[in-house]
Specification:
alpha+beta; Beta Polymerase, domain 2; Hydrophobic Seed Protein; 4 domains; 8-stranded mixed β-sheet; two-stranded antiparallel ribbon; elongated; binds cytidine-5'-triphosphate
Amino acid sequence: RRREKNIASTVTNRLPQKMLDLLNVAGELGNKLGWEIYAVGGFVRDILLGRPNLDLDLVVEGDGIFFAKELVKKLGGRVKAHNKFKTAVVILENGQRVDVATARLEYYEYPAALPTVELSSIKMDLYRRDFTVNALALRLNPDRFGQLVDFFGAERDIRNKTIRVLHSLSFVEDPTRILRAIRFERRFDFQIGGQTMRLVKNALNLKLFSKLSGTRVMHELQLIVSEEDPLACLNRMQELGIMEAIHPLLKLHKERIQVLIELAKVHNWYKLLYLEQSVEPWKLYFLGMTMGIKNTQIKQVTDRFHFTQREEREFLQLREMIHEALIQLMSWREGKSKLSRLYSILHPLPVEGVLFLMGKSRKEHIRRNISQYLARLRDMEIEITGNDLHELGIEPGPIYSTILEKIMAAKIDGQVETKKDELDMAQECYARESAKEDKADES
Ligand code: CTP
């Protein structure tokens, strides 16, 4: 039985004024056109959870594309329409994005001789969704603004912190929902419900994952590692044996989980210290998830995920570079080896590679030195540029980078400090390099 409840005051309290204005305009436009307008999905869920979410999804019981165009006439911005799906994306002038969908009145045919029933279109729209907590709608028309449309007990499930599917074929229709269930469960600290859990296990027994497209699985994994606490999700996936269901080589065995734990720590540490320099979590965690897979087998995994040739090449290259760096790091000795050598080992790597090495290494001094590299060396710059070399009368060529790299190394090792030191060194370097060349020419 459907529960009717008005949460207008909660909505008003929990959303910024700009968003409220937008909801009101959408509701009024709905009235003018004679259509019911609803906010749906994660947006409504997050209002009830008290978590800010500005991704607005609207459903129109009418013509969604027409509605989107009218909305833009009122508010400015642009519309991208997908006629095939009767959906539109609105980008308002202030950058706010609104997804608009059309709910059609649908006739639902029961199998064999039972009567065909007509369902209210918003109900049908919600019924197609993944979990009850995402199957809520909020009426926006002014007369009933804030009315919660809850056909499936979503509000109760949110209160009880339960993730529940709407019907028993949900995971058969779309097995990626299993990964979504885990993601929502860990994000909100919910529990997958008993019956839903049986359906998850059933889907795994039916090997539904093995047939799932690599692109879709990868997209879901990317979302998982972009969560606040990816490790919680990965642990749950390990419990359920999901990675090996995707591909046997991906089994989250003990050593991998151990490294992933360390990667999560390093990732958090980095996020805390260098907010503004972002890491692509997927690159970092995927290195951990594929750790220990031999070069001769790694292609099976990149093929499973439908990597493009370029993605595959870049990933294999990164693995190779990390391998090289690891060997070099083994012989680097704190206090004995030069800091500039540490710099030249780590500098060619993208930040994800550096963090991976830091997480993977069991040696405390290596971790410490990598963190020193990130904190002090990575962004160090010298003062002179190619222009200065030109002014010194040095002929442009590859020698420029040789000289600049040498000066950089000297600066890292504390051998030059001022710009004058750098210029002097540039001249010395040039003299030495030319002497070398002359010698080579003579012989
Ligand atoms: N959905 C679904 N099955 C999927 C993906 C999405 O039923 N495999 C539905 C969900 O009901 C969801 C809506 O489509 O509410 C929009 O999807 P998305 O934007 O991914 O979900 P949100 O719930 O907004 O999740 P997030 O907070 O992670 O953005």
